[in-house]
User: What shape does this take?
Amino acid sequence: MMLPLQQIGFVQEDVDPSLDIYAEIDRLKREKNAVLLAHYYQEPEIQDIADFIGDSLGLSRQAEATDADIILFAGVHFMAETAKILNPAKKVILPDLNAGCSLADSCPADEFATFKARHPDHVVISYINCTAAVKALSDIICTSTNAEHLVRQIPEDQPILFAPDRNLGRWLIRETGRTMKVWDGACIVHETFSERKLVGLKIQYPQALVLAHPECEEPILRHADFIGSTSAIRRHARKNEARQFIVATEEGILHQMRKDCPGKEFIPAPPESGCNCSQCPHMRLNTLEKVYLCLKHEQPEIVLDEELRIHALAPIERMMAMSTGVS
Ligand code: 13P
Ligand code: SF4
Assistant: This one.
């Protein structure tokens, strides 16, 4: 028996194994005037059919600017929700509504409202990895690409409250020298990397540079030769003359890095256990079949209360205005 979509969060339907799913997705995209936006942490086979692959900032800009009728977002819920906030006239669909984010989950809006009320004189900067309700309580949204740039624009005497990622917050404090009150959230993927195993890899590959995402914990970041967002990590590997890189972020990014630089070696930083913990379990809920079914049925769709959308839009627009030219 098929369960209703509202219950399971994705379209449940058998896909004929002989179907040329790539050709079908392509046909449906053209027929429905849909654009496929994919984050770097998606399965390689999804990245390969995307119209645009990028980080949270790049994807938001694409979602805002698109003239497609449908935005098919291969990413997690907060990303698709941000697309809907920015471009409400479009139909925004997500292959699996269960694709959440541990950072967004770590910051319930009611608890965040209490935290904010305890610091009334603070400007609230929230990482884009949060719900629309938390965005609506924020003054400025940031991504890992523009966070430092935005914090540096806040007057020195203005206290800052930062949410929800404690690791990104701690890194920003270190980089900018600003004191900030930081919400205690973390990403389940970026906090599983093992410092002991990373040091072992550095011994094994003494020429390799370590590239890390600022969502990693301090014991990992202290070994990094470069710290930045997914797009910054990708760019750094392209430009740098080194031939080997140890990469401490979700391993989906390695797909584009290997395509960019076939002659270079990219080694994923190891998690503590022998599992696939450096794959985001939320991002990986999206599969090629779900992408196809989502486009075929134009479901599941992101639906947002209009008042909430308007409140969540203001801090995102502030981010966009304050980060022109940053990529
Ligand atoms: P960026 O791609 O913006 O660096 O973000 C990483 C991330 O955790 C997305 O969930
Ligand atoms: Fe959220 Fe971490 Fe997954 Fe990114 S990698 S979507 S921050 S849980």
